[in-house]
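Sequence only, no structure available. Ideas?
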Amino acid sequence: MRLRLFGKCLYLLAAAGLSGVLFMTLPGAVFHRERPEIFGWSFAIVLSGSMEPAFSAGDLIIVHREEQYRTGDIITFTEEGEMVTHRIEGVTDQGFITKGDANKVPDDGVVSGDRIRGCVTAVIPGLGTAALFLRRPEGLLVMALLWAAFIWGGDMMRLLRGMGGTDE
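Reply:
I predicted one. Tokens follow.
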């Protein structure tokens, strides 16, 4: 009896923990908005092909905040509330000139140091593809159904078994 109660408590703690992690990180990754950093580390999902061949849409990038940045570094920065990841092409007194590897011209304006979220340290090809699916309405529906099944699935199974007249 105590073991069963312990298992239920552990299940609820795991569900609450997963909910918290998803609530804090998934919206930022899916919608490419700012997300929290953990000890200077964050991640993003690439939404466009502006940095091909370095990485492609659907790739997951790991970003780390650095003390200084230099020409050639691939940085993630904020641009009008959106996260952008491009390579530093040059440095001026006002900040950094950036450009996507697949773009023909540099980005408009200069990126000041306070807008930089970090430098790309790793790329995991294709890992963000599922999150890109979640941006679409059918993806959100699938996520809601899976979440409901996770939360209430066990209770529904017990209820259905009880209706069939079988004992546990």
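The chain has three helices and six strands.
Hope that gets you unstuck.
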